[in-house]
């Protein structure tokens, strides 16, 4: 509780400034990535908008940011392809400068399939995009961040880094693997002024889960899995990421911030049992 006689001044507002920072947000042509890119730009960062197949949406976002006093440029490529990632970073070096914020957001959940009856190419595809992608991007980012002497890498995992999800062994394995990548990389780069943090969203309304929130029955069922009585919004995740890449989070590394409205609280036990 604030002491009325204290000299501290309240009410002036805490502001996050990312001025001078260059941020790459993978998969920012839609969903969470798009919102994260907008927030980082609003906080003053120059943003590299990355897309895989939605070039037009990426260009629209860059135009919106540039027309509103921010700075953004568009870069395309497949994060599961090492050469594409090399090209993305080289093009950003030339056009914007050295990346000092990387948000590894691009990801897919893949086809629902049960192990044994599954298609192993699909498994490899999910691991390629969700785990190899962040690895390829992080190693390019780390090279540059070491030169600058600072940097932050955010890995967008999922509650499924903790929570099994039948039919999605590849997704859960990739996200749990990405979580351990965060911790191990954080240890490796801690003396180079680089922080690495995971953000684990719960169920957030985006195109990835439209089949669930677009249908009243599956939407009702989803709500029984969340302690708070709502799905997450993209802004819930973008705010957490903006905080974590800022100086306000300068002592946070190698851990996961869960942003899930209480999905991991075993909501079925809410009324006892
Ligand atoms: P989305 O489908 O809107 O976004 C996924 C993005 O990844 C798209 O921009 C897509 O173009 C990009 N992408 C797909 N394949 C790619 C490839 N090969 N190379 C480069 N980019 C590629 O979904 P979203 O919900 O915004 O998901 C963003 C991240 O958040 C994903 O990693 C997802 O696993 C994670 N996540 C989402 C939720 C949720 O409820 N929405 C929950 C937990 C975790």
Q: What is the topology?
A:
Layout: E1 22-25, H1 31-42, E2 46-51, H2 55-67, E3 71-76, H3 82-95, E4 101-104, H4 120-148, E5 151-156, H5 169-189, E6 194-201, H6 210-213, H7 216-223, H8 234-245, E7 256-259
Parallel strand pairs: 1-2, 1-4, 2-3, 4-5, 5-6, 6-7
Helix pairs in contact: 1-8, 3-4, 4-5
Bound molecules: nicotinamide-adenine-dinucleotide (NAD).
Summarize this, please?
The protein is an alpha/beta fold and 273 residues long. It is built from 8 helices and 7 strands; from the N terminus they run βαβαβαβαβαβαααβ.
Please describe what this structure looks like.
The longest helix is centred in the middle third of the chain and has 29 residues, at 120-148. It contains eight helices and seven strands. It has one domain (22-207, 233-265): NAD(P)-binding Rossmann-like Domain (Rossmann fold). Helix 1 (31-42) crosses helix 8 (234-245), helix 3 runs parallel beside helix 4 and helix 4 (120-148) runs parallel beside helix 5 (169-189). The radius of gyration is 19 Å and the shape is globular. It has helices at 31-42, 55-67, 82-95, 120-148, 169-189, 210-213, 216-223, 234-245; strands at 22-25, 46-51, 71-76, 101-104, 151-156, 194-201, 256-259. The model has no long low-confidence stretch (mean pLDDT 95). With 273 residues, the chain is α/β, with parallel strands linked by helices. A seven-stranded parallel β-sheet has the order 3-2-1-4-5-6-7, sandwiched between helices. Strand 4 (101-104), helix 4 (120-148) and strand 5 (151-156) form a beta-alpha-beta unit. Helices cover 41% and strands 14% of the residues. The protein binds nicotinamide-adenine-dinucleotide. Nicotinamide-adenine-dinucleotide binds at residues 26-27, 29-33, 51-54, 78-80, 105-108, 129, 156, 158, 201, 203-204, 206-209.
